[in-house]
Amino acid sequence: MNVIEVSELTKKFGSFTAVDHISFDVKEGEIFGFLGANGAGKTTAIQMLCGISNPTSGKGTVAGYDIFKENEQIKHNIGYMSQKFSLYEDLKVWENIRLFAGIYGMNDKEIKENTRRLLKQLDFESERDTMVASLPLGWKQKLAFSIAIFHTPKIVFLDEPTGGVDPAARRQFWEMILDAAYKGITVFVTTHYMDEAEYCDRVSIMVDGRIDALDTPHNLKQQSQAQNMDEVFRKLARKAKRIN
Amino acid sequence: MSQFNAFVQKEFYHIFRDKRTLLIILGMPIVQMLLFGFAMNMEVTHIRTAVFDPSPDQSTTQITRRIEANPYFDVVGQVHSEEEVNNLMRQGAIDLAVIYESGFHRNIVHSGEAQIQFIADASDPNRGTVATNYVTGILAGYQQEMMQLQTIPFHINTETRMLYNPQMESAYLFVPGIMGLILMIICTMMTSVSIVREQEQGTMEVLLASPLKPVTVLMAKTIPYTVLSAINVASILLLSFFVLNVPIRGNFLLLLFVCLLYILLSLTLGLLISTLVKKQLDAVLVSGIGLMMPTLVLSGMIFPIGNMPLVLQWSSYFVPARWFITAVRKIMIEGQGIMTVLPEIGILLGMTVFLAVLSILNTKKRLA
Asked: Between chain A and chain B, how many beta carbons pairs sit less than 8 Å apart?
């Protein structure tokens, strides 16, 4: 079953076409890598899928809801973690959890129980009352991801979630992503790290607003006769004409 | 817990955890009130006074002696005509003239009533009021003593004239002025900064991707600042009433309504600014320089609008604080009713709606 179906999706800002007629499907429970150089249009595409920004033309459904008309329902069924670190630094760990859980309409009892479970799972119990500002970056990102899937959405969108953390923390972070996917949450992730692309079930590569390649990492490497995803990406990205 | 409550609570956390900003927000009105209040009210000394006493008698002599003995007054001498009073005043040689009617004491004895006139140079309005307040006080003291001694009740009618600035613009005006300034700063600057901060941090994107409606986010943002502003209105009014003795002559509820309307306007302006800038610093600059200067200069808070060149007078029409200050002055100082402040209320309301529509259009454009 497809949780995301997009066809000919386009976003124009004036005469500039940020996203240029992209079409793809994402299957339920899949980890879908959404790759592309800076300025290729990834963030704009994600924003359209999340209902933050209205497409100029095209069609699409997310979690079964129309991206033009049913923004509200989409937002209830997705989680989102932006490329900027996106928790409140001057709130405590548990306050951040409660805030976002409250925003997604969870009730007090649910929030309490799930918070306890989450903190235990993350081994964060001692940090319950710590201000987020004083957590190490790797921990913040783990927490941000946990909060993004706290309300058990159908799909979670991760926009460059691992920027700026060390390889060990990235590895741990991806374990969390794999775990979430295992539990049935579809993961839609953008990244600059090509080694991370290898974790994905399928990968699309955006160049100048278009999707130039879409397949499993294995097939992509074969098609372009590359050793690794890094090489695949560089071969494709070389064609880009947009200058950032 | 409802979405909205969760979000409002978070806003309060932001404010209460930023102790320094909180201190500034709540302390600023108090400091400003005391600074303005005491700098303007308490430093009036050496009031140069001329006395015109056409028929010296025991009453006038006693009153004059009391004025002479008062440390705040320097009696420069007796004059012999009103003409002379006017000349001295015009030369700037005196601040105050005390003019008795002729036959002062005789009138007290016969009719129980006598006239005295105080003329003050109100080109420095504050000095003018304070001088007449002092001298009225001296007279009242004298009257009271006499009443205790004499069995016949009597009354001295005082007539006070403020020369050059008869409406006494800006004397009490600093109280409404400070309200206008502080509410503008807190509501506008704080609201715009707190929204732009979310954009800068990236949390706004997360909020937009959540089921929270943008309108809910903005509404929730404004609530804590409305509360803080209400506290400020209260502290300003309390200080002005109990410490600075500025009366609240008109309808108190009407006064609060006008304050609330102005708070609403300032919040909307803050929202609009937040849709126009991308950085917290810009938000501070726009609301700081863009609003504080016009509010200070063009609202009539410091400089009387009537004395400005026409172009500036026209510009002052666009300064919300101008209308707010006028309305508050009418209600608080002049004790006028709702009918007289309807134009100001209408204008403030109109500005609020205009700004609200503008910010909604801007938000829509940004999100599209």
From this structure: 82
Q: What pLDDT digit, counting tens, does each position of A155-204 carry?
A: 999 988 888 788 888 899 999 999 999 999 999 999 888 888 889 999 99
How far apart (Å, rounded) are the C-alpha atoms in residues B283 and B237? 29
* Alpha-carbon distances of A7 from A18, A56, A87, B216, rounded to whole Å: 16, 12, 33, 32
Query: Does residue B169 register a pLDDT over 70?
Result: no
pTM value? Answer: 0.73
A231 to chain B, closest Cα gap in Å: 32
| Average pLDDT score, chain B | 84
Contact A103 B201 (CB under 8 A): no
DSSP code of B101? P
DSSP letters, B283-324, are HHHHHIIIIIHHHHHHSSSSS-GGGS-HHHHHHHTT-HHHHH
Residue span of the structural domain in which B222 resides = 3-39+171-367
**Which residue, of B112, B143, B163, is where some domain finishes?**
B163
Last residue of a domain, one of B110, B140, B163: B163
Q: Which of B323, B279, B285, B280 is nearest to B183 (CA)?
A: B323
How many domains is chain B built from? 2
CB spacing of B13 vs A108 below 8 angstroms: no
In a domain, A242, yes or no: no
The answer to the question of residue A244 being in a domain is: no
Q: What is the DSSP string of A168-230?
A: HHHHHHHHHHHHHHHTT-EEEEEES-HHHHTTSSEEEEEETTEEEEEE-HHHHHHHTT-SSHH
Q: Which pLDDT does position A212 carry in this prediction?
A: 86
Q: Is residue A29 part of a domain?
A: yes
Structure tokens at A20: 């240029």
- Looking at CA atoms only, how far is residue B274 from chain A in angstroms? 18
Low-confidence ranges of chain A (pLDDT < 50): none
Q: For the range A134-140, what are the long-range contacts, defined as Cβ-Cβ under 8 Å and sequence gap of 24 or more?
A: A135/A93, A137/A85, A137/A164, A137/A165, A137/A169, A138/A165, A138/A166, A138/A168, A138/A169, A138/A172, A138/A173, A140/A85, A140/A87
Nearest to A82 among B3, B202, B212 (CB): B202
Q: Enter the ipTM.
A: 0.86
Instruction: Give the residue among B81, B84, B93, B91 at the shortest CA–CA distance from B49.
Output: B93
Does pLDDT of B2 surpass 60? yes
pLDDT in tens, B235-280: 989 988 888 777 788 899 999 999 999 999 999 999 999 989 989 8
